[in-house]
Design brief:
Number of helices: 4
Number of strands: 14
Radius of gyration: 31 Å
Helix content: 25-40%
Shape: elongated
Largest sheet: 14 strands, antiparallel
Length: 330
Amino acid sequence: MRRRAGLILLAFAVFFTALSPLMRWYVFPRLAKVPANQYQDMVLEAKGATLLDYGTMKSRRVSNVTIVQTLKGDVEAAKKIEKTAGRDVVVWDGLSYVQGPDGKMVSRIPERYIFDAHSQEPVHATGEMVDNDPVRRDGIEFKWPFLTQKRDYEYFDAQARLTAPIHYKGTQTFRGVEVYYFEQTIPWTKVPFPKVMPVQGITAASAAKTGTTRWYTTVRKFWVEPVTGAPVYGEEIHKEELRGGTLLGGRDKITVFAGHVKMREDYIRSTVALVKHNRQLVLMLTSYLPWGFLVLGICLLSLSLWLEARDRPQGEAARTGTVEPEPVTA
């Protein structure tokens, strides 16, 4: 019975030991994915910002500018792209909506971002765009890969339509969560006018005909939870200007928007709570279960060998027919 139990334990030891690397290198890449139907929104604010009044074409200081960012997964579009891409794909339809303190629209920029559900690498397909302009992304956007590393990444800037390095600056603690801090600087860059302008009678095409150009610079900051690759907090020191042309009435340049954009407090709390929850799910696949199965396999192997060692003396005696010697009498 001991030998049979030992063999059963040995079989389970081999099973769990083999399952350990499979969980990490086979199961994890197939289960840890961004859901195709995910929907999320984020509200950011720039208090005490500078904003252009298009009625007077003068910049003025305002109490608050609000930026609402939404990301909505298009499941049907993802399924169509997956047929040719040969991998799980997520299609995010994004919208960045900026409004002034009076609630009126300042800008409205739609975006379609197509990426690999696990690695977050861009997937180039028809429909990839920013403000209805076709683009070809290189690098990540919105989310870092699972198991983010302490290194620089390529990050796509939707305003400038270009990719630039976002630099790892160190490890910090944010609201009780260990995070990696990343920072990207986009220098002054000429960018297109938005397709939807905040005043009637002015379009992107008509503004461009005046010879006036739009310029933009930003310092982008992210605090990223490395296990999930999800930012728990973000900021931007953002500036936009109009330069030259007849639209400015003889002035060289005028500030369109300047402000320090930060996530609103209620969204910080909800984001941190969600990331903490998702972190445990990812750790289950990458750490808890793989190491747990490995330890369990070693323990079962040790128990199997112990039972075999205990069983061996009795088995050998039975096979050789060894008996106790009898005393010799004279």
